[in-house]
Amino acid sequence: MTATEMLLTRIRELQDELEEEFTRRRAAFRYRLDNGRVVFEAEVRRRHREMRVRLLTFLRRTRPITVITAPVIYSLIVPFVLLDFFVTLYQAVCFPVYGIDRVRRTDFIRIDRHHLAYLNALQKLNCVYCGYCNGLIGYIQEIAGRTEAYWCPIKHAARVGAQHAYYAQFVDYGNAEDFESSLIASRGQITRSGLSGIGTPP
Fold this sequence. Notes:
A hairpin with a 2-residue loop joins strand 1 and strand 2 (37-40). Helix 6 (121-151) packs across helix 7 (179-190). The chain is built from 7 helices and 2 strands; from the N terminus they run αββαααααα. The protein has helices spanning 3-28, 42-51, 55-61, 64-75, 77-98, 121-151, 179-190; strands at 31-34, 37-40. The chain has a two-stranded antiparallel ribbon with strand order 1-2. It is mainly alpha-helical. It has a domain at 66-190.
């Protein structure tokens, strides 16, 4: 096992440990997931409702500058929805052609915070908005990552700020000798056949 593979294995182990901690926290806050639906104990929901800040009180506490900037924040929903549509269309049309495994939106976009009884209506709307937009970015990054892994799995010469799940296994920048074999391996990781032919993009 190479040093990179050992590091990736450790990262996956840490991610599993983190998920186990999340599971323990669910028990501590007395809720469970029932077929994807959040279910709180009745007493917990009652206490949550008591702790909710009423909408009018919430609005009175809001700074005027927050109200002024809100339309700018929410205007981003238009490009986000358009991006969602076109990226989903791209995946639906192109991924089957190259045998790339499809990315499921539901694995990334989670809309569940509006079930929290201690949030008022505006807070719930904000949480729905953030859940959709941030989930969408993760969904698009996964699609883009699989695209990059198929066509150009080469690390950059300089460090990049954010890396998708496939980047660590890309061939090193300048490693011409291993490029072809790494390209085949990278495609095998994300395709159903595991042995897609090497070619150039149309």
